[in-house]
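TA notes. Do not distribute before section.
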Amino acid sequence: MQRRTLMASLLAAPALAQTFPARAIRVLVPFAAGGAADSAARTIFPRMGERLGQPVVVENRTGAGGSLGGGEVARAAPDGHTLLLDAGSHLVNPLLMRGLPFDYLTAFAPISQVVVFPQVLAVKADLPVTTLAEFVTLARSRPGGLSIGTQGNASPGHLGLAQLGLRAGIQLTHVPYRGGADAARDLAAGVLDGVFITMLSAGPIVDSGRARFLAVANAYRAVLRPHVPTMAEAGVAGVVIAEWAGLFAPAATPPAAQLAVFGALREALAMTEVRERLAALAAEPVGSTPEAFGRFIRQGRDDAAVLVREANIRIE
């Protein structure tokens, strides 16, 4: 039976490749317009549409921590014309949300990790620290006394902050916002002591002299700001977290349609104008294969489960 099914899929693939896409493709982004993932989507997907010969339309579906948009794609016809651009919530939501009407583990087929947005720890300009080591020393002298803003509960910034607290043995007060831009605004105003958000969101207030970078939570230095040390280089190993955006299709989408989307995405990411625009967004293009992205998702879920348990993370 499996052999007959496989042969049928292979025989059908050339015909599907010739007819797909038959109409515009919708990419649902379960985050606010103007944010990091949305900005990257509106940079990449119009060019992807040119390669496919049909428009690729970005639609924002915010709410319920990203599960609203995810649910709509999970219920969509699995024909390749409705896709999901999701982020770290794809890993965390199944761990923290109960009663979801779909299963993140089985509802989607991974197509590609599209971009990565480096996460950084930045502090207000008048905080008396210039290095991560000095920050850790100050935090140890004030348990719970330093307020750090993030993009929200269970966001990559929240997870990174939890990692930092565990690895450095410090207690920080988490202040969740509805996005990195809001957290950066309060840091610039002196309401917060620091932020753990994307380099894109923190960059403008650092450039204006109202904050300073201490470290980036990458395994390597960020291409856009190579002078910022990694957490490990700055003295705290084991703090590696990034905000990323990845493309998913409904699980039963034909492989030929998935591969057509993946091929067009890779071509779009290779375009000079796209890469230059992404660099301006402090976004690093990836374009991983479906197989590599699937491995990333599986490992990411395991790592997130450990961190959520160790740090006792809850959706408040």
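Switch to the second chain here.
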Amino acid sequence: MSEVKVPFYGHVRQYHNLKADIDAAITGVLESGKYTMGPAMTKFEGELTQYTGIKHAIGLNSGTDALWLAFLAMGVGPGDEVITTSNTFFATAEAVWLVGATPVFVDCEADTRNIDVTKIEEKITPKTKMIVPVHLYGQPANMTAIWDIAKKHNLLVVEDCAQAFGAKGDTFKLGEKSDALCTSFITAKNLGTFGDGGAVFTNRDDLVEPILRGRNHGSIKRSCHTVGWNSRLDDIHAAILSVKLKHIDEFNDARIKWAKLYDKELAGSKIKLPVAKAGYRHVYHLYVIETEGRDDLQKYLEENGIIALTNYPIAIHEQEGFPFSNNQGLSYKVPGITGAGDAKPYLPETEKNSANCLTLPIYPELTEDEVKYVASKVLEWENGPGAKYFK
């Protein structure tokens, strides 16, 4: 591999840009002596509710725990089916399996790669309890249609917003057409700490206490326990996130700026480019292109000092061990898990997406020259060694 000219991640650059404020925030927590369930976490939760307009925000240790604690709070468990998509990070379905329920996969749209809302109702059965749309790559799914379907069939809705913090729909805000919204604050996210973190957002008062208990060993008061887990958001991470939250809109504006520049530089290419729906605020957690010969293009970019990665090259239903029935593929026993059925789902668009996807570097700290350089090398490959894939 040649010298890296354009790295895939920008979090070190972001740290340097915000170093004084982040260092001061960390020092403040360390000097306070309150590192867990302390004032920095409480302050950040309040800032989240103010930013999103959602009534409750509960800080957690990861987006994964956010999902499964939300599922548990809503009573999802063995015998239930949860409709979601397969072309996303494994944790979405993993959280369903962990509560003992069964994920039922719906194919994605050919353009946005979000869940195809026209195919949801055909997957609804008497066992269906919930729909979990993923706002893939930074663009909201069609929550208006999903919420209408859910109300029609008396289903719960939890939004997986791990990739779309700060995004908006055309006529809706995220979190207003669902029972809860879950997000991740892992390092590479649009709003990310230097480690792990997550949150559940909800306007439902009845979900708050079960999630608060769930994140802290079943306790909301010292020494009084039911059953729970250690799923808390540490105060150091909360303090870092408070600093970054002040900049989230400008971070997302920069991502949009670079995405538009990629679009301009790659205009006319035969490679499939991302599609942003009219009226939506797509915040480009990922800038994903699709092409045959994806692996060859990735190697070509690497040879030219560009790190491009794949999100997500193996769809969940194609993972080793699927359908994970009888605890297959899990490293420990989880009571109640019965798997996802015996037949492989028919998901042609999902499989096309996973076979051809390649993510180009996109983060606020990129430069115009870097974006243009990446785009030039993509076109150079398309018109040179990759030309054989476009005949």
